[in-house]
Amino acid sequence: MDVRITIPARINVLWNVKWSLKSIVNGVRNTLSTRRAGSSSWFMDSKESLINSLKRLGYLKTPSLVDAFEAVDRTDFVPKNLEREAYIDHALPIGEGQTISQPLTVAFTLELLSPKQGEKILEIGAGSGWQAALLAHVVGAKGKVVTLERIPRLVEMARRNVGKYKDFADRVEVLLADGSKGYGKEAPYDRIVAAASARNIPEMWKKQLKVGGIIVAPVGDSIFKLVKEGENNFREEEYPGFVFVPLVEES
Prior knowledge:
By secondary structure, the chain is α/β, with parallel strands linked by helices.
C-alpha cells in the first residue's frame, strides 16, 4: 500500500523553518522564481555566500550537509568556462545535453534524503559528480556511494572530478549503466536518489531499497519522497514545482 501526501509548492519554503512575515513573503517569492525553468536566479560571488543564502531560506539545515557543501566546491564540477558562474543558484550545462543541478534543488533533495554516516547510497545520474561527492562526504569512511550514469563521457568526468577529493574519493563508485534498472549487485541500499525525472518510480528501485530506507526522485515536475515502511508498503510525499531533465531508459 502506498500512502501519498502532497506538499504544496508554497509550503516548501516554510518547511521546518520559523519565519517572520517578511521572511515568508520574500522566501516564497525567491523560491518560485528560482526553481522554475527560465526564471531569474541568485548571483553569488563565493561558496560561503551561496551556502549562507541556502541556510537563510531554510533549504540547507542539517549540520552534516552544511559541512559537505563547505567541503565540496561546486567549482570543481563545472566546465572551466563556467567556473565564474559556479556559485549562481542555477543549473549549468556540463555537455551531452545534461546539467549540474541548481544548488537549491540539490540542498532540498538531500535534506529530504537525510543521508547518514555508514549508509550505502545509490545515485541515479552521476552527471559531473557533485552530488555523489557531497554524499560521500556525509556517509563517512564506513559508507559508500554507487552512482550510475548512461553517458560514457560523463562517467569519465564524474570520476575525474570526484577524484580531486582524495580524502573520500574511494567511497564513490561511478558506473556506466542504465539507472532505471538500479544496480542489484550492491543492493540493498539505505537511500536511493535520482537527478532525472521518470514517468514513475521504477519498481527495481523499490525492490533494491531496505525496509526503513528512503527514495527521493523526480517524477514529472515534482520531487517525491518514498519511505519504505514494509516490504510492499511505501509512504509517499510530493513536493511540486521543479524542472528536471528526463530519465532515459535503455530498451
